[in-house]
Specification:
elongated, single chain, Gyrase A, domain 2, alpha+beta, 230 residues
C-alpha cells in the first residue's frame, strides 16, 4: 500500500497475470509458450508496445483500492470514460453514503501547500502562495467544514435519511472517498501516461505515481515499454 496526501492511499488488491502473460498471449498464434521470462521475451514486449500491438497487454488485469479526495476521483473517472482509449475491462465501484455512514474525512492542504493561479492558463496552478495566505485559506476551509458537519450531524440525529443528510456534507471536492478500480494492463498504462504528466493536477499526479510504483512491481517490463511508447 502506498500512502498519498496524508490519509489517502492506493492499495493493490489483486492481479491477474505478469509480463509472461503478455508474451504467451502474443505467441499463442504460433502455439508457443514459455514458463520463464527471457531476454528475447523482453524484446517482444517492447516490439509489441512500439508497434501498437496492444491486445496481449489486455490479458493481464490489476485491481486497486483507492482512498482519495473527491476532486481526484471525479477527474480520474472523467478520464476513464472520456478517453479515446476505451478499455473494455475497466470496472469502478465506489462506496456510497446512501448505505454507509463511515467516518467522514477531508483533504486539508497544509498552509504552505496552497498554490497560486497560473499566469498563462485557465487551468492548473502556479507556485505556492505565501504561507500567510495559505494559513488563512486553511482556516476558512476548516470553518466551512465545521459548519457543514454541524448541520449534517443535526440531520442524522433528527432522523433525516442518510441519502439526503449527506447534502450537508461540506467541501465536496475535498471529501475523501473510497473505490475499487480494475483495469487491463494497457488501461492502467494509458491512465499513467496522462496523469503522471507534468501538466496533470498535482494531487492526482501523486496518486498516479503510487499506481505506477505498484504496477511496476508486478509488470516491470510491460509498464516501462508501454509508457515509453504511448
Amino acid at each position: 500500500m502506498k500512502k498519498v496526501l496524508g490519509n489517502g492511499y492506493v492499495r493493490l488488491v489483486d492481479v491477474m497475470g505478469s509480463d509472461l502473460s503478455v508474451v504467451n498471449s502474443a505467441r499463442v498464434s504460433y502455439n508457443k509458450a514459455t514458463n520463464e521470462l527471457r531476454p528475447e521475451d523482453e524484446k517482444l514486449i517492447n516490439f509489441l508496445a512500439r508497434n501498437d500491438h496492444t491486445s496481449p497487454f489486455r490479458h493481464a488485469t490489476l485491481q486497486f483500492e483507492v482512498y482519495a479526495p473527491l476532486m481526484c476521483a471525479r477527474q480520474w473517472w472523467k478520464y476513464l470514460i472520456g478517453s479515446s482509449h476505451q478499455d473494455p475491462f475497466t470496472a469502478w465501484n465506489e462506496s456510497s453514503r446512501r448505505y454507509v455512514t463511515e467516518e467522514i474525512e477531508f483533504y486539508l492542504p497544509a498552509s504552505d501547500a496552497w498554490r497560486s493561479k497560473p499566469e498563462n492558463s485557465k487551468q492548473g496552478s502556479g507556485p505556492c502562495l505565501d504561507e500567510k495566505i495559505g494559513g488563512e485559506a486553511l482556516n476558512r476551509l476548516l470553518k466551512q467544514i465545521d459548519y457543514g458537519m454541524e448541520n449534517y450531524n443535526w440531520a442524522i440525529e433528527n432522523g433525516v435519511a442518510t441519502e439526503q443528510a449527506r447534502l450537508f456534507i461540506p467541501s465536496a471536492y475535498g471529501l475523501m472517498v473510497r473505490w475499487y478500480w480494475t483495469a487491463s494492463l494497457q488501461g492502467v498504462a494509458h491512465f499513467l501516461a496522462q496523469r503522471t504528466d507534468g501538466h496533470a493536477q498535482s494531487e492526482i499526479r501523486e496518486y498516479a505515481n503510487a499506481v505506477k510504483e505498484l504496477a511496476t512491481e508486478r509488470f516491470p517490463v510491460s509498464i516501462a515499454a508501454l509508457l515509453q511508447n504511448l
